[in-house]
Predict the structure.
Amino acid sequence: MSEPSFRAGFVAIVGRPNVGKSTLTNALVGAKVSIVSRKQQTTRHRIHGIVTTDEAQIVLVDTPGFQTRHKRLLNRAMNQVVRQALADVDVVLFVIEAGRWMPEDARVLALLPQDRTVFLVINKVDRLKDKAALLPFIAARAKEFPYAEIIPISAERGRNLDDLQRTIIRYLPPGEPIYPPDQITDRNERFLASEYLREKVFRFLGDELPFGTAVEIRQYEEEGDLRRIWAEIIVEREAHKPIVIGERGERLKRIASEARQDLEALLGARVYLDVWVKVRSGWADDPRALRSLGLEP
Ligand code: GDP
């Protein structure tokens, strides 16, 4: 049996606030960006970051309830959401702090699916004064849950991240890249712009989103700290247009305005964003439109 030539899958990073989830995400992705997007076909997660190597693609997804931004504890209503979110990823990274096991960690542990691959990622090992203390700590954790792997790291110092990445890849299913590799250089501003806009379209249209809605960036100009972006939201039928535009253009205005604000925060630049809604019948035959929807032509 030969090794599959490529592996690809979804990875969720969970843990109580302050254990280093964002730091780890950034360290793995290699840039201080979080891609916010949602791909209809494959996952209901938002994409946090994508790591593509010669042999694999790791798609890091956001798990509701674990965002650092909302420092709130997991409450009961959240638990169901978390369980569902974790049910369809390939690997769960449960992040804790070296030498510290808190009641909140135990609460997160209780939510972890037994039938998924769960790694215990022990972060901040650089903080340990007595390295020998790590062994009994690991032994105690191993008794609590059938972790597939236990990996000590320092997300901040970049320690052992190669090992973590290699190990994650071993557990991903064989398959083609989920995102076309050329499209997802995480520094590709144009790509981020379309992802951000698409995310707003999804958010504001929700269930009303007509099938076949796509986002395309027509033109992208960079001028010092100003970005001029011309984008189109493409719908399949004339009748879909008013749904996207909303009453007196209110909905489209909000979609564009929120996408612009997010982009400005992300890029640290002023953004001029011009969004049009266009009807394109037969878009499904257009490979570019298909790609922008996240579908393979
Ligand atoms: P999150 O709430 O789980 O996303 O945690 P953050 O990534 O925001 O990190 C919380 C704090 O821990 C920040 O001050 C980080 O700088 C710090 N931190 C993260 N990783 C490490 C690490 O490997 N070593 C040390 N010493 N500090 C870390």
